[in-house]
Write a structure and sequence with these properties.
By secondary structure, the protein is an alpha/beta fold. It folds into two domains: 169 residues, no CATH class; 93 residues. 42% of the residues lie in helices and 22% in strands. It has eight helices and ten strands. The strands form four sheets. The protein has a three-stranded mixed β-sheet with strand order 3-7-6, with helices on one face. It is elongated, with a radius of gyration of 27 Å. The two termini are 52 Å apart.
């Protein structure tokens, strides 16, 4: 097996999240390699690159060594792929108000023996194995899906199950590490700030409308707020669109203790930033 073959993804990642911080990393091409680099060390049975490329399965009769119909194997592969595809398709509609992270693994337990037939140049050899990894490519909904399916003998399954238990703890640690890394500078990293601004505006815009009402006695529609970090001064500003405000009003808002407290709560909740900040005029682009 050539694990550097660009036409094969030997370590596909199947996961989903509705958490903006985790999705910031999970949506990038670097996620799968970094995930497998860490998990291959902690759960090698599950995530080390396969030793061989399985190109076919064949059921055999132990009584007379004759080949049998391979419908059961094919059905186990297709049912797993379809089940995974279905589960991933409905996650967005499930528990919408709860932030979640899923990582999928596919396994098929065989109440029999597994024998690996290895073809290498002119040599053919056979050996019994407890498990075999199969990289499956399948067309679902007019799209190619790639998944890694682990075939496991029933006798070996209890030991492999321990690896899946360990995987859960390792997943929690890996996700927590990326969560902490995201929020370490989410308030000053532009790409991260953009991810969180919709949630921030949901909390901050009503407070801005009420603050403007206290000053003008008029309810006004306002544009989205934004954040900007001044690297030289090491200071954060919450920017309000120039079309909604002028310098005189900015000065008043900076003196409005109620408004400052409400926005500060939103900044802490969304960006995990507890430092000081000021209000400023944002220049629309």
């Amino acid at each position: 097996m050539d694990d550097k073959d660009p036409n094969y993804n030997w370590r596909p990642f199947k996961g989903w999240t509705n958490h903006p911080a985790i999705n910031h990393y999970m949506s990038k091409m670097t996620w799968s390699p970094s995930y497998h680099e860490k998990l291959s060390k902690e759960c090698p049975v599950l995530f080390s690159a396969p030793n061989v490329d399985v190109f076919a399965f064949q059921e055999m009769s132990k009584a007379n060594s004759s080949p049998q119909n391979d419908k059961n194997i094919f059905s186990s592969i297709t049912s797993l792929m379809k089940a995974q595809s279905y589960e991933m398709s409905i996650l967005n509609e499930r528990q919408k108000n709860k932030k979640r992270v899923y990582q999928f693994n596919l396994a098929s337990v065989i109440e029999s023996e597994l024998v690996r037939i290895l073809f290498q140049d002119a040599d053919v050899s056979a050996e019994s194995v407890d498990s075999e990894d199969y990289l499956c490519r399948y067309i679902l909904n007019q799209k190619e899906e790639v998944a890694r399916i682990k075939f496991i003998t029933a006798n070996a399954f209890p030991e492999v199950l321990k690896q899946y238990s360990k995987l859960h703890a390792s997943n929690c640690e890996f996700i927590q590490g990326n969560y902490d890394r995201f929020y370490r500078d989410a308030y000053k990293d532009w790409s991260k700030t953009q991810v969180l601004l919709p949630e921030f505006n949901t909390l901050a815009k009503p407070a801005l409308r009420m603050a403007l009402y206290r000053e003008t006695r008029k309810f006004s529609m306002v544009s989205d707020l934004s954040l900007s970090w001044n690297e030289k001064q090491e200071s954060l500003s919450v920017d309000i669109n120039a079309d909604d405000i002028d310098l005189d009003m900015i000065a008043k808002l900076n003196q409005d203790g109620q408004f400052k407290k409400e926005v500060a709560n939103a900044v802490v909740s969304v960006f995990h930033y507890e430092g000081d900040f000021t209000f400023d005029i944002g220049i629309p682009f």
